[in-house]
Amino acid sequence: MGDIARQAPDKDTGEDLYQYLLERITNLENRNLELREQFRQMESEKRYIETQKIRYERELRKLKSEIEQLRSPPLVIGTVTDVVDNNRVIVRSSAGPRFLVRTSQLIDPDLLKPGVRCTLNQQSLAIVDVLPTSYDSQVYGMELVESPDERYESIGGLEPQIVEIQEAVELPLTKPHLFEQIGIAPPKGVLLYGPPGTGKTLLARAVAHQTNAHFLRVVGSELVQKYIGEGARLVRELFELAKQKAPSIIFIDEIDAIGAHRNDSTTSGDREVQRTLMQLLAEMDGFENRGDVKIIGATNRIDILDRALLRPGRFDRIIEIPLPDFHGRLSIMHIHTKGMNLGENVDLAEVARLTEGKNGADLRAVCMEAGMFAIRSEHETVTQDDFMKAIDKLSLDFDKHHINTSYGAMFA
C-alpha cells in the first residue's frame, strides 16, 4: 500500500505522469491477484469446513441413534406356536404364558411359522423381528473348520477299504448322475469297525480332507447328557445343521457309546441313552428325508451294537478295518519312515515280518522308538539294530501292562 499511496511527481510533465500511472496500475493489478488468491484459499477452506461440519453432524446423529437404542427397553424372546392370520399370531414368551399378538408390517408373513423364534415388544408384545434358527453351542463345536492334513496316500494297507468308502461317501457327492443313470439310490451311511489302532478315524480324517462337503464330527459319548431329552435334542440339532449346510458328512466316532443293545434297564441313565439312540435311529432313516447328508460311524465293538442301527438304510455298507497283513505292515512302515534318515542296513521287510499282529499305531510307535534309540546312541541315521531294540521294547511294555481281557469283552 505504501507504493500505491506514494505522492505524485512534482513535475507536471506528461512523461512522469505516464510512468506514475503505469506503476500504480501495475501495483493495483498485483494487489488484485493477491486478493483473488486469498479469496480462492478462503473458499477452499470454507468448503472443507462445510464438509467436516456435515461429517460431524452425521456422526452426531449416529451417536444419538445408538444412545436411543441403548436407552430403549430390551425385547422379549418368544416362540411362535400358531398363526391365526397375516396380522395375528399366537406366541409363547420366554416367561411361559401364551399371547395373541400382532405383527409388524415390515415382517414377511411367510417367515412366521410355528416353532420360529422371534422378539416381542415389552409393552405391547407385538412381534418386532424374526430370529434365525439357533443351535446348541456343542453342535457348533462339532463343525470341522480346518481340514485335516491326512490323505489317502498316507494310509497303508487299506486299499480295498479306501475304494469302498470312496464309492459310498465321495462318489454320491461328486458324481450323483452315475447313480441316476443306473437307477439306484446311493448309500446313506458307512460303518467302520475293527480293532483299535487300525485306522478308522484316520480314514474319516482323509475323507474330510479329500471332499468339499461340510464335515461335522462327534464322539458318541458327547451325545449322552445328564437331563432327560437333552441328548435327543443334540442329535436333532446336529442333523438339522447338517441338512442346512448340505452336502455334508457326519462322522460319529465310538458310536457304541449310544448304540448298544437296548434292554429292560431300570436306571434313568440307561433310559436316557436309549432315548438318544432312538432319536439317532429316527434321524438316520425316519419319516423325514435326510437329504444330501452322509454318515460315517466308527466302533471297536460292533458285537454290542443294536440291530436296528446295523440294518440297510442306516448303514448301507459295513466295512471291516482289520489288522494289517505283511504287505499292509510293509506299506505302513514305508509311510512312517519316509521322512526318517535310515541307514543302509535297514530292512523294512524284516521289521514288517517281526511285527505280526501289530496295528498301524504300534508300527508308528516302533518307528518313533527306533528314532529315540538312534538319538540316545548319538547316531546320524537309524540302523536296523535300533528297529530291533524298538520292537523288543514295545513287546516288553505291552506284556508288562497287558490286562487279561478278550477283544469282545466290554470296555476292552
UniProtKB/TrEMBL annotation:
GO terms for cellular component: cytoplasm; proteasome-activating nucleotidase complex. It is found in: Cytoplasm. It holds the Pfam family Prot_ATP_ID_OB_C. The keyword ATP-binding applies. Residues 18-73 form a coiled coil. Keywords: ATP-binding, Chaperone, Coiled coil, Cytoplasm, Nucleotide-binding, Proteasome. GO terms for molecular function: ATP binding; ATP hydrolysis activity. It comes from the Archaea. Residues 186-325 form the AAA+ ATPase domain. InterPro entries: 26S_Proteasome_ATPase, AAA+_ATPase, AAA_lid_3, ATPase_AAA_core, ATPase_AAA_CS, NA-bd_OB-fold, Nucleotidase_PAN, P-loop_NTPase. ATP binds at G197, T198, G199, K200, T201, L202, H336. Its main location: cytoplasm. GO terms for biological process: proteasomal protein catabolic process; protein unfolding. Belongs to the AAA ATPase family. Homohexamer. The hexameric complex has a two-ring architecture resembling a top hat that caps the 20S proteasome core at one or both ends. Upon ATP-binding, the C-terminus of PAN interacts with the alpha-rings of the proteasome core by binding to the intersubunit pockets. ATPase which is responsible for recognizing, binding, unfolding and translocation of substrate proteins into the archaeal 20S proteasome core particle. Is essential for opening the gate of the 20S proteasome via an interaction with its C-terminus, thereby allowing substrate entry and access to the site of proteolysis. Thus, the C-termini of the proteasomal ATPase function like a 'key in a lock' to induce gate opening and therefore regulate proteolysis. HAMAP family: PAN (MF_00553). Consists of three main regions, an N-terminal coiled-coil domain that may assist in substrate recognition, an interdomain involved in PAN hexamerization, and a C-terminal ATPase domain of the AAA type. This is Proteasome-activating nucleotidase.
